[in-house]
């Protein structure tokens, strides 16, 4: 049993590192200085030491960490306002030496590599310290692996802000916003993964999906900027016929997202925004009712979700899938019915529906608020995707 525990722990620590190495070894993503990336990884591990010492000192005095299904206000304040900002700041500090020493030598993609390496090194040591001394459990390695992947993808957001800044400044609106969102995402992911039961671990998947997709979009954006600046393609290829796309939609990019969210010539229709919010709310209700009816036919016990039992994963996954898909369908319906020329109106209606849902959950079931916050970015993205598909068919 001890050998299996060690093997699972090593696998949980090595899997995120192997994934990063696999992505970074591709030609377009290969850093200009692999030694700097390795050194940043080591600095990230070193930065974890003062973070752990500081957090353990604070928890020893205040004792805010509690594992369980209850709401602990001190634990929430500690996670969101102390631990997450401290850890994200130390990750930035670990990425700073390589970024500063190689100013003028690295490419924009290198800034993302430094940010990912710093976060990966930090989370690798943090996960190792968490796994050491724990009794055998299958859920603990899964928790550390998912949170490590999420933290690495979230760190690429402020790495992207560094890469797109031509002057290499650590600051400004883009960097500060990306850093704050990364810290908040890490706080939510850590809370649902470690401060809730095993079934709540599924709520880290939406965070990981959104963080990964946005990281991929950011990587594509800096690569496109580099290609446009260097003009690597020869002139004779301009007259070659373009190959037909397999999909009717182009791969997502920041430029395409800005164009989709830009206001059209006509003013915003508050009627369709309000009606879209009602449509989204009604679609959520209908999909959840349908999921409950389907689950009863399949023999699911929905009461096990409140107890966080081992058989709560299947009904929770069914309800979460139904709720998320409802945003996709609602976004498409609103865009088609309103004949919208941009995604802005369906996006605003989806955002209002999400805020209303979180407020109602806060009044009825405060325990579910953190899980709803974890799923909110993916729900908003699916609503925008549905509206985008509705626009493409118009």
Automatic annotation (TrEMBL):
<keyword id="KW-1133">Transmembrane helix</keyword>
<feature type="transmembrane region" description="Helical">
    <location>
        <begin position="313"/>
        <end position="335"/>
    </location>
</feature>
<keyword id="KW-0378">Hydrolase</keyword>
<feature type="transmembrane region" description="Helical">
    <location>
        <begin position="111"/>
        <end position="132"/>
    </location>
</feature>
<protein>
    <submittedName>
        <fullName>Protease PrsW</fullName>
    </submittedName>
</protein>
<feature type="transmembrane region" description="Helical">
    <location>
        <begin position="270"/>
        <end position="293"/>
    </location>
</feature>
<keyword id="KW-0472">Membrane</keyword>
<feature type="transmembrane region" description="Helical">
    <location>
        <begin position="347"/>
        <end position="365"/>
    </location>
</feature>
<keyword id="KW-0645">Protease</keyword>
<dbReference type="GO" id="GO:0008233">
    <property type="term" value="F:peptidase activity"/>
</dbReference>
<feature type="transmembrane region" description="Helical">
    <location>
        <begin position="144"/>
        <end position="162"/>
    </location>
</feature>
<dbReference type="GO" id="GO:0006508">
    <property type="term" value="P:proteolysis"/>
</dbReference>
<feature type="transmembrane region" description="Helical">
    <location>
        <begin position="199"/>
        <end position="219"/>
    </location>
</feature>
<feature type="transmembrane region" description="Helical">
    <location>
        <begin position="371"/>
        <end position="391"/>
    </location>
</feature>
<keyword id="KW-0812">Transmembrane</keyword>
<feature type="transmembrane region" description="Helical">
    <location>
        <begin position="174"/>
        <end position="193"/>
    </location>
</feature>
